[in-house]
Amino acid sequence: QEQLTESGGGLVQPGGSLRLSCAASGFTFRRKSMSWVRQAPGKALEYVSTISSDGVTTYYAPSVKGRFTISRDNAKNTLYLQMNALKTEDTAMYYCQMQNDRGQGTQVTVSS
């Protein structure tokens, strides 16, 4: 059974940085593209970023491009999201996603 466990969220001031991690198990991680999505309170789920199975190709939503970096370590079955220059509008629950499966999420709050 696939399992995705996010961590690394927290409270950060505008302009700050956070690094999210997602530990994956129950499937062949190195063969799957992986994504990050987020959901702010009262809003719909929003796409953030995707990385190919080999880590070579990445995609970003326009709202985060140039500030966020997605990466992965296939030896550790772990997905990452480095978030820099955070804005208040980045406040949301962040989930890693593999096809239709998501973890429980990690909360990111950007506030002064």
Low-confidence stretches: none
Helix content: under 10%
Listing every helix as H and every strand as E from the N terminus to the C terminus, the arrangement reads: EEEEEEEEEEE
Alpha carbon gap, first and last residue: 40 Å
What share of the residues does DSSP label as strand, in percent? over 45%
- What's the story with the biggest beta sheet? 7 strands, mixed
Mean pLDDT equals 97
Shape: globular
Give a count of the beta strands, DSSP E runs of length 2 or more: 11
Structural category:
mainly beta
Q: Count the helices. How many? A: 0
Question: Mind telling me the C-alpha Rg?
Answer: 13 Å
Topology diagram in text:
Layout (H helix, E strand, L loop, with lengths): L2 E5 L2 E3 L5 E8 L8 E6 L6 E6 L6 E3 L7 E6 L4 E6 L8 E7 L2 E2 L3 E5 L2
Describe the structure.
The chain is mainly beta and 112 residues long. Helix content is 0%, strand content 51%. Strands 2, 4, 5, 6, 9, 10 and 11 form a 7-stranded mixed β-sheet that branches. Strands 1-3-8-7 form a 4-stranded antiparallel β-sheet, with no helix packed on it. It is globular and about 40 Å long. The model has no long low-confidence stretch (mean pLDDT 97).
